[in-house]
Amino acid sequence: MNPSSPHSVPTRAEAERLVTEAVELGRLPRSAGEKLGAGLADECVREPVLEAAFESKRRGKGDRVSVSKNVFIPLTNLCRDRCGYCTFAKLPGDPAAKTWSLEEVADAVNGARRAGCIEALFCLGDKPEKAYRSHLAWLASRGHTTTAEYLVEGCRVAFELQMLPHTNAGILSAEQMAALRPWNASMGLMLETTSTRLRGKGYAHHVAPDKEPEIRLRMHREAGELKIPFTSGLLLGIGENAAERVDTLLAIRDVADAYGHIQEVIVQPFHAKPGTPMHAEEPLNDAVIAGWVGLARLAMGPDANVQAPPNLAPEVLELLLRSGLNDWGGVSPVTVDFINPEAPWPELDELRRRTEASGQTLVERLPVYPDDLLHRPEFFDPQVHAAALRLADADGWARRGVHVEAA
Questions:
Q1: For residue 254, what are the contacts with CB-CB under 8 A and spacing of at least 6?
Q2: How far from 401 is each of 80, 96, 252, 371, CA to CA, in Å?
Q3: Residues 6+ apart with CB under 8 A from 255
Q4: What is the domain-level CATH number for residue 288?
Q5: Residue 299 in domain
Q6: Whose CB among 135, 226, 264, 268 lies 3.0–4.6 Å from 305's, allowing a Cys bridge?
Q7: Which helix (H) or strand (E) holds 254?
């Protein structure tokens, strides 16, 4: 399922030349990315990439690595898409299918506040009302016609309880994002891949209409037009080749260049799960994953925020810390990762210890980064901006203990 790249593996000398040029240029050209991507399994290519990526990160971000302390709220796990790797999505008759009530949202948020969380991460399936009449009827009984309308209410509840929502709801229209904006500090949609090939029969996104790359890119652009701080990312190992991975990174970069709203880029590895069509797929080697984090840093440049989830590669955090990342993403002390429930979050104290052992410093952030919060107020609804500033210190990082003290 993963066609080989036509590029030959560069020599170490060529790899060193390409990455040095990328660091000095502040971004990675497509041709260099494809050459290096084709050779990341080779240590002679990968090591120069990691070294250059770490230098790029050091120039732009210094020694800081950030993390967001959050509560994960899977508002509904009904979804009209059937991705070949997903165990999150459930059918209405499944005993595990669940749509949260607003009271359950409030209970989760109150518990998370007592644990010192600031971010309420809303994740949910894509447009289940278009596939399941029972869910449409459930929404109608509560005065809604779409899941996105109900999501606005969930975000409002979280915000009014002094949490900052970050929404990852799949494909939303510009109008739906505009309705969510007064209650959200940021939003996101993993681009995953620009490969239309993976929409073909037998591939990961065959039965997933919302994974059409152009539809996802359109939402990225519309979020930019609305001035919404936005998270995107690359999903590794779902059948794409090296050139397609590079193309995905550069597509995200193009949108970032055009609108300036891409606040972070996640490099997330695929993990095969029992019971899915892709259960037998071999995952990428951890070292290769670190290499792609490095290429993401070189592609996006020193000032970008590059993230790798620590629960998906817990044995190699030290390697990832050499790869140019500057963010671990959200880590919850109160909920599991509902998308990857088999992968527990690391304890924050352990994450801090291992980050500091690498010579770097762990800092807690809000669902938005200090640069946007302090210098780009136009990227927020005024009430969200004011609330975020109350939860931040003078440098724009999370003010430690604020919710614990209030509780």
A1: none
A2: 40, 35, 35, 22
A3: 217, 220, 221, 224, 232, 262
A4: 3.20.20.70
A5: yes
A6: 264
A7: helix 242-259
pLDDT tens digits for range 108-160: 999 999 999 999 999 999 999 999 999 999 999 999 999 999 999 999 999 99
Instruction: Tell whether 202 is covered by a domain.
Output: yes
Q: Note the pLDDT tens digit of each residue in 65-87.
A: 999 999 999 999 999 999 999 99
Asked whether residue 30 is assigned to any structural domain, the reply reads no
Question: pLDDT > 90: what percent of the chain?
Answer: 95
The alpha carbon of 123 is separated from its chain's Cα centroid by a whole number of angstroms, namely 11
Cβ-Cβ contacts under 8 Å for 104 (sequence gap 6 or more):
none
* Count of structural domains within the chain: 1
Q: Say if CB 49 and CB 36 are below 8 A apart.
A: yes
CA dist 370 and 278 (Å) reads 39
CA-angle at 197, arms to 148 and 78, nearest 5°: 25
- Alpha-carbon distance of 158 to 223, in angstroms, equals 21
Cα–Cα distance, 308 to 299 (Å, whole number): 15
Tokens 């996006």 identify what position? Answer: 300
- CA-atom Rg of the chain in angstroms: 20
Question: Element (H or E) spanning 13, and its range?
Answer: helix 12-25
Across 298-304, average pLDDT: 98
Cβ-based neighbour number of residue 215 at 10 Å: 12
- Rounded to a whole number, what is the distance in angstroms from the first to the last CA of the chain? 51
The SS3 of residue 333 is: coil
- The mean per-residue pLDDT over the stretch 81-95 comes to 96
Alpha helices in 286-358 (DSSP H): 286-300, 317-320, 348-357
Q: Rounded to an integer, what distance in angstroms lies between the CA atom of residue 294 and that of residue 50?
A: 5
175, part of any domain: no
CA–CA gap between residue 216 and residue 210 (Å, rounded): 7
State which residues form the domain around 381.
Answer: 58-69+190-406
Distance separating alpha carbons of residues 135 and 116, to the nearest angstrom: 34
